[in-house]
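Exercise 3.2. Students should predict the tertiary structure of the chain below and write it as C-alpha cells, then compare their answer with the key that follows.

Predict this chain's 3D structure.
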Amino acid sequence: MAIPRAAKTQRRTRIQEEKEELILEAALEVFSRRGFLGATIDQIAEAAGMSKPNVLYYFRTKEAMHRALMDRLLETWLEPLQAFDAEGDPASEIRSYIRRKLEMARDFPRESRLFANEILQGAPVIADQLAGPLKTLVDEKVKVIRSWIAAGKIRRCEPYHLIFSIWATTQHYADFDVQVGAVLGPAYGEGRFEDAARFLETLFLRGLGIDV
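Answer key:
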C-alpha cells in the first residue's frame, strides 16, 4: 500500500491524518471526474482547499495519491465476493452478492468510476493485484459455484462468466448513472436500485434454474 509522506514521520498526528483524508477525498473527486491523465495536482489542491506545496508535503506525486486510493478501493471491492459462503444456500448467496454489489454502486459511485478508469487505461497501478489477490479470490469462489453445480443445486454454467456478468450488470448503475437517469426520466431515484436488485435476482436465479 502507498504510504503518505506524513505517515513516514516519527510521530503521525491527528491533524496529519485529517489532512491526508482531506487530500484523498479531493483526489477521489478529481480522478473520478477527469481520470488519472486528466487530473492535476493543482486541481486536487483546489478541491481540498489547500496550497499545492501543502498537498505535496503529504503526497509527493499524483501517482502516490492515486495508488493510495486504488489500494483502499481494492480492499472495499473484494469484500462482497469474500462473503460468498460455500456452506450457504446458492439462492441466498447469489441474491446477497447481487445486492451487496448494487449497494456499492449506490454508495461508492466515484470509487466505481475510478476503478473503471484504471481498467480502461490497462490497469497500470493495480495489474499485479488483479493477477494476484483478485484472481486468487475469484478462483476460490469459482470452486464454490462448481461445487453447487456438482451437487445439482444450480444449473450448469461457466462460473467465471457468471461472476463477470454480475459485475457488469451491477456496476452499470454507478459507471453509467447519467445514462440510467436520462433513460428513466421522472422515474429516476433511489428506488432504481431496489428495482434493479429484484430484476437481476430474477434474471440470474432463474437462469441458474432456481425458483424465485
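Discussion points: The longest helix spans residues 14-38. Residues 181 and 188 are 5 Å apart (CA to CA).
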